[in-house]
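Checklist before submission:
- one chain only
- standard amino acids only
- sequence pasted in full

Submission:
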Amino acid sequence: MSTQEFNNRLIELRSNLHRFALTLTSDRDDALDLLQDTYLKAITNRDKFVDYTNLKAWVFTIMKNTFINNYRRGVKENTIIDGTKDLYFINLPQDRGFTSPDSVYSEKEIEKAIKSLDDEYRLPFTMHLQGYKYHEIAEKLNLKIGTVKSRIFFTRQKLMNILKDYNN
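Returned file contents:
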């Protein structure tokens, strides 16, 4: 296959590749970047393509692997490695920073709204806020897990209605 024929077949795949890139990235600009990277790799590695095999599968594999490698690189870049003795930085308490008077007021209003709820809704909700899992709440309150989930859901709905002034 000539270089011209190879390039023409690549160009014919553009719309399919673009759709696939959109499904991988869920972002238009990232999809275009991925498409460009894929074309670049396909053209630079043309000598590795075996003539008259499935070009579409070959290019789609390049795109998928490029996406995976970019994703892994992004995860590594965002990973913080603490090399200090006794993991000093990881074990530092997370400072909440300055507490504004508005946030204290909001916190009190939220607590007041939660306390105003009936026990059947308040108890599962507060346990969930404290970190209990659904099945743990169900065992402690002697309820079915579906009941626990629905009560927590309905409690959120009630609180959003009570605290609608705080919604953005």
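Reviewer check: Residues 138 and 163 are 27 Å apart (CA to CA).
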